Amino acid sequence: MLNRSLRRFMRLLWRIVWRGVLAFVLLSVALVLLFRVVPPPGSMVMVERKIQSWIHSEPIRLQREWRGWDSLSDNAKLAVIAAEDQRFPHHSGFDLVELRRALQASRDGGRLRGASTLSQQTAKNVFLWTGRSWTRKGLEAWFTLLIEILWSKQRILEVYLNVAEWDRGVFGLEAAAKHYFGASSHSLTERQASLLAAILPSPLTRSAARPDAQVERRSQWIRQQMRNLGGADYLQQL
């Protein structure tokens, strides 16, 4: 009798689990397909920042203005690729070369550095939360595969530039350009774009308008990489 009850319970539990998984898969695919053509209304990182402000009683005003591909500076598009993911047009969401290098550096006694692609960062920003956990990394891999399959590379970069966090409450290239330089996202110079890309590893502790020596050096390196990639012609690969 006990074994029969246990079997019934396990069958019920299994139905609940697989139906939950199926519902998640269908919902996530539907969202990714929707955002293929419709601008995301925001991102989970924006939601997270808003919740944090409520918890800590520190009001925050989110600044963000969506801009389509043609209204985004080619300098900025190239700068973030040069800074974050130079194999972006060619990989399928995961840069195995950089991942191997990061693991090898860790084995050699160095600090385990990130090897996250622009596709992974877009998936995390739009659909997930910040922080480190195996659960989040697993979900990040799932959403990365989805956007790589269902979006073009151009769409991935367009969404990334519209949801990336550049300062407290400042999201997207248009808001960042106005916040730091009083300019539009279309008119950013090569130097301005490289400074914005240079602070992306730590946008809450660095400034593109008042760059310290480290940010200045990184922005110079990014500009050199932009030239090495071939300038704006490189974007034709997307």
UniProtKB/TrEMBL annotation:
* Reported function: Peptidoglycan polymerase that catalyzes glycan chain elongation from lipid-linked precursors.
Q: Which family does it belong to?
A: Belongs to the glycosyltransferase 51 family.
What GO CC terms are in its UniProt record? peptidoglycan-based cell wall; plasma membrane
Q: Which Gene3D superfamilies match?
A: Biosynthetic peptidoglycan transglycosylase-like
Start and end of every Glycosyl transferase family domain? 62-226
Protein name (database record):
Biosynthetic peptidoglycan transglycosylase
Name its cellular compartments.
Cell inner membrane
Q: According to its UniProt record, in which pathway does this protein act?
A: Cell wall biogenesis; peptidoglycan biosynthesis
Reported EC number(s) for this entry are 2.4.99.28
Q: Which keywords appear in this protein's UniProt record, sorted alphabetically?
A: Cell inner membrane, Cell membrane, Cell shape, Cell wall biogenesis/degradation, Glycosyltransferase, Membrane, Peptidoglycan synthesis, Transferase, Transmembrane, Transmembrane helix
Q: What residues form the membrane-spanning segments?
A: 12-35
Gene this protein is translated from: mtgA
Name the chemical reaction catalysed here.
[GlcNAc-(1->4)-Mur2Ac(oyl-L-Ala-gamma-D-Glu-L-Lys-D-Ala-D-Ala)](n)-di-trans,octa-cis-undecaprenyl diphosphate + beta-D-GlcNAc-(1->4)-Mur2Ac(oyl-L-Ala-gamma-D-Glu-L-Lys-D-Ala-D-Ala)-di-trans,octa-cis-undecaprenyl diphosphate = [GlcNAc-(1->4)-Mur2Ac(oyl-L-Ala-gamma-D-Glu-L-Lys-D-Ala-D-Ala)](n+1)-di-trans,octa-cis-undecaprenyl diphosphate + di-trans,octa-cis-undecaprenyl diphosphate + H(+)
Q: Which InterPro entries does the annotation name?
A: Glyco_trans_51 (IPR001264), Lysozyme-like_dom_sf (IPR023346), PBP_transglycosylase (IPR036950), Pep_trsgly (IPR011812)
Classify the main location. Answer: membrane
Superkingdom field: Bacteria
Gene Ontology BP annotations: cell wall organization; peptidoglycan biosynthetic process; regulation of cell shape
The Swiss-Prot or TrEMBL record annotates one GO molecular function as:
peptidoglycan glycosyltransferase activity
Membrane topology for this entry?
A: Single-pass membrane protein
